[in-house]
Amino acid sequence: MAMNSQQGAHYAYDAAQEKYVGAYPDLMDLIAQELDVDTVDVYVGPLWWKPLRRGEADILFFMGPMWDGFYYTSPINSMTFHGLLKAKSRNAEYWSLFDPFHWRLWVAICVTVILGTVVAGLIAYLERAWDPREDPLEFGAMLYHSVTLLLGGHRRGDDLSGAMATSSGAARLHRLGLLFLALIMTSSFTANLAAFLTNPRRVVSGPGTLDELSAATACVNDWWLSSYVTNFAGGVVWPPDGAYELDDYAGRTQWCVDAVKDDDSEVDVFLTFDAQFVLLEHCDSLVKAPGIEFEPTPVYGITHSYDIMRNVSQAIYRLRSDRPYYDVVNAHYRTYDMCPGAMDTEDSSEQISVRSMESVFLIFFANAAVAIGLALFDARRRRRDAKTEAREAALEAAAARETDAPRNPLRGDSRRLAHMFGNGARLRLSQSRGRGRGAPDAPRRALAPRRSAELALV
C-alpha cells in the first residue's frame, strides 16, 4: 500500500519512529488486518500512476480524477469541505440595554402604543368624555398613560386621569388589552436582558450559505485544492508559492486562518476538509458556516488488479460498519469533539423578533377592535335612549300646557249642560218688540215653532 506525496493533518512523517503516522496510515493498518496483508510505505510523487504500473505498489489511496486502465475501490474516507468564518466576541456596550428586542420590534411596540392611544381617544369621544376640538392636548396625556400602562406604572388603574379614566366597559376592555401587552413585553424583555448584559456578544462575518459563498473569496491551504472549490466560490486564494515547504501543512493552514481573521484581508472564508480539526484549535475566533458543506471527491483506492479492488472494497465495507473505524477517524480528526458551549440548546442572547410576538399583537388589536365595537354599540344605544327621552319629555310638556290653560267648564260638555238645564232644554226666543208693518202678526210668529239652539257660554 502507498500514499501520495500530499501530507498534512491526514498523515505526516515521524522522524523518531521513522515512519508515517496519522489517520491514513491507521486506516490502512485496519484494512491490512482485514485482508491479512502487510503495509509498506512507498513515496509516490506527482506521477502517481507509474509505481502502480511498475508494480512497486499494489494499491494507492488517493483523491483525484479517474483514469482509464485502473480499478477504483469504495471510498475509504469522505473529503468534505466546510467553511470557517471569522468570529469576534464583543462585550456589552451602552446600547446593549435595547438589544433584547430587535429594532423592528421596538418600532412595532411604538406604533402599537400610538394606535392604542388613538383607540382610547376614539372610545372617549364616542362616550362624550373627550372632544378633540375642545381639548386636543388631552391626547398627549392619554399617550403618557398608555406608555405608563405598558411599563407597568398603573397597577390598579385607579390613578388614571382625564379621558383615560373612563369607566365604561369598552374603556376597561381596552385597558385590559394594554395590560396584557405590558405583561408579555416586560416579562420577555426582563428575561432576555440579563443575557445581553452579562454574556459576551459574538459577531460572525462571512458567507453562511452556498449562495453567499458564490460571491465571496475563499482560501485553501494548497494550490491543488483550488480546482475543487472554484465552482463554488467567487474567488480562490492560497498561500504564496515558495513561502512554505511541501510538508509544512500546518504553516499553510495557519496562513488561511490568519487571512480570515484579518479585517483588511480580502478573504471571507477558509474552505478545508479539516474544518473540525482547525476549528477546535480556534474556538474563540472561528465558527463553522452552517450552510457551507460539499464533497467534490472521496478518497478511494486505486489499483491495477480487479481482485485487489474487490477484496479491498469488501474490507472497507466491513470496516465502516464497525466501531474501530470511527475511533480512528475521531482520534485524528476529532470528529465528535466540539467547542465549549456548542451543545447549548438555547441561545440566551438571541434577539426577540417581531415574528415571535405576532400572536401578542394579534390579540391586542383584536381586543381593541372589540372595544371599539362595544363603544359604538353603547353610543348608538345612548342616542336611541336620548331620542326616546326627548320624545317623552315633549309629550309631558304638551300635556302640562294643556292642563295649566284656563278652560270653560261648559264647553264641549253635553252631559253637564243636560244636568244644568234638563235634557232637551231649549231657549225660546221672545216676541219681537219691533214696530212697523207686520206687527199684528208678531204674536203668531212668536208662537210658531222656531229653531232651537243649545246654550253656549263664551
Automatic annotation (TrEMBL):
Membrane topology, from the record: Multi-pass membrane protein
InterPro entries xrefs: Ionotropic_Glu_rcpt, Iontro_rcpt_C
Keywords: Glycoprotein, Ion channel, Ion transport, Ligand-gated ion channel, Membrane, Receptor, Transmembrane, Transmembrane helix, Transport
Domain spans labelled Ionotropic glutamate receptor C-terminal: 103-365
Region (Disordered): 397-416, 428-458
Keyword NAD: no
Subcellular location: Membrane
Pfam families in UniProt: Lig_chan (PF00060)
Record-annotated membrane-spanning stretches: 105-126, 176-197, 359-377
Primary localization: membrane
Origin superkingdom: Eukaryota
Annotated PANTHER family: IONOTROPIC GLUTAMATE RECEPTOR (PTHR18966)
The protein's name in its UniProt record: Ionotropic glutamate receptor C-terminal domain-containing protein
Organism: Aureococcus anophagefferens
